[in-house]
Amino acid sequence: MRQPDTNMGCCSIADCRPVQYRTIGDRYEIFLDDRFPGVLEPKWVPVPTQRILDHTPNPTGSAVACWEPHFGVRCFVRPTDS
Q: How far apart are CA 72 and CA 68, in angstroms?
């Protein structure tokens, strides 16, 4: 997976996890917990629009986010529409 705005890799696959998400108006938020590196307290965080991977196949059936403690959300893939 590559970041849409820079075409750089999202990170290591070890940094990506299935994630709960919600929409607030026209933006997404993801729920981070201790499964993500460096997250000590569970929290909802906004997903920057430029980090949403559109038209990316997602065979997992759930949303996936790649997160790094010093950078934040690297990539976000919505679940595949049913």
A: 5
Q: Rounded to an integer, what distance in angstroms lies between the CA atom of residue 54 and that of residue 69?
A: 23
Q: What is the pLDDT of residue 71?
A: 86
Q: List the one residue out of 7, 18, 30, 25 whose CA is nearest residue 79.
A: 18
pTM: 0.78
What is the layout of strands, in order, in the sheet containing 43-46?
Answer: 21-24, 27-32, 43-46
Rounded to an integer, what distance in angstroms lies between the CA atom of residue 48 and that of residue 76? 9
pLDDT of 9 reads 60
Residue 18 and residue 14: Cα distance in Å, rounded?
11
Cα–Cα dist 81/58, whole Å: 9
Strand pairing partners for 32?
Answer: 43
